[in-house]
Amino acid sequence: MSISKPYLLFLGDVKDELAAKTAHGVLDWRPEWCLGQISLPGCKAHTTLPEMNLAEAAQEGVKTMVIGCVNAGGVLPDHWIATIVKALHNGLDVAAGLHIRLGDIPAIAKAAEEYDRKLHDLRFTDLTFPTGNGAKRSGKRLLTVGTDCSVGKKYSALALQKGLSERNISADFCATGQTGILIAERGVPIDSVISDFISGAAEHLSPATKDDHWDVIEGQGSLLHPSFAGVSLGLLHGSQPDAFVVCHEPTRSTMRGVSTPIPSIQEIIDQTVMLGRLTNPDIRCAGLAINTMMLSENHAKSLIEELGEKHKLPATDPVRFGTDPIIDHICAEFKLV
User: Fold this and answer.
1) How many domains does one find in the chain?
2) Which stretch is the leader sequence (predicted)?
């Protein structure tokens, strides 16, 4: 995938920072690609980038406006359309990770044609996938799983891939969502794949490779989330992980978007092992990635230590405190150099 850079990150009028996770993800992992942000009245999210209008962005050299916010169902609010059309009018391409193609909206399609601009639909692919077959394939795989949505599965996977590579262990990040695809410039939007083919798409994403190579696969949803468990299960079976890392945000009481209580870390470990054994009987938990963004440093460190001792597993906040404890454990478990 090739999207012209640099980017202007569109935040819309979302009501919290988690709803702007695409913008934050791209900025955190590819800051050199981002020049500014644009938001609508009432927006509760913000980045560290300067606010720009579309004319200023074009003058500063921005090439693409990225829709940096998401909502349940991946729909495009009608009142965002005018800003997208104006971006095209100002000479910018537009990229979005919605469940609707930008070109299916008449006003956007007309403007893109009139101003000869490109529309990038990150949640759509021209690839077709077979059904998964569960056959054992060479190489090693690590999957991030979560106690909920938006708990740090993508960030943990990116940090773990970086940590493995820094130790000269061959590793790739495999993106499965729109933000990960923007960061990696490749991947499969797994939640847009027809359900029968999710596991096959995951097999395609992490194919047979050298025995000493690790594919670090970005997890989606949660096995116990009533809205998204189907995607999580198909990804688990197709990924066929040798190891998984449980991602957890400790300040929540209910799962995002629903009233279901947050499951325990142990429930997620047990469910992942039980269900993952279908395609990899040797699946094992390699550690805990605790998202401590909402905690003070002292509280974060004490909680991480407490959870590590409770579950007899290495625990860390991969972004805040690094990945060494988990990677040390993986190296010992799998006898890596």
Assistant:
1) 2
2) none
pLDDT at 290 over 90: yes
Helix H, strand E, coil C: the string for 27-92 is: HHHCHHHEEEEEECCCCCCCCCCCECCHHHHHHHCCCEEEECCCCCCCCCCHHHHHHHHHHHHCCC
The residue whose two tokens read 């066929």 is 240
Return the bridge partners of 172, or none.
Answer: 215
* Phi, psi (deg, nearest 5) at residue 144: -90, 130
Comparing CA positions, the residue from 290, 308, 313 lying closest to residue 300 is 290
Provide the strand spans (E) within 167-297.
Answer: 171-174, 214-217, 243-248, 284-290
Residue 145 lies in a domain: yes
Q: Give the residue among 16, 62, 19, 17 at the shortest CA–CA distance from 37.
A: 62
- Indicate whether 173 and 299 sit together in one domain: yes
Among 150, 149, 155, which Cα is nearest to 175's? 155
Strands 284-290 and 315-316: parallel
Do 269 and 230 share a structural domain? Answer: yes
How much of the chain, in percent, has pLDDT values that exceed 90? Answer: 91
Domain boundary pick from 121, 148, 164: 121
Confidence class for position 99, pLDDT limits 50, 70, 90:
confident
Q: Considering the entire predicted model, what is its pTM?
A: 0.93
Instruction: Render pLDDT for 169-212 as a digit per residue (tens, 0 to 9).
Output: 999 999 999 999 999 999 999 989 999 999 999 999 999 999 99
Residue 129 lies in a domain: no
Q: Domain of 212?
A: 140-333
Pair (217, 82) in one structural domain: no
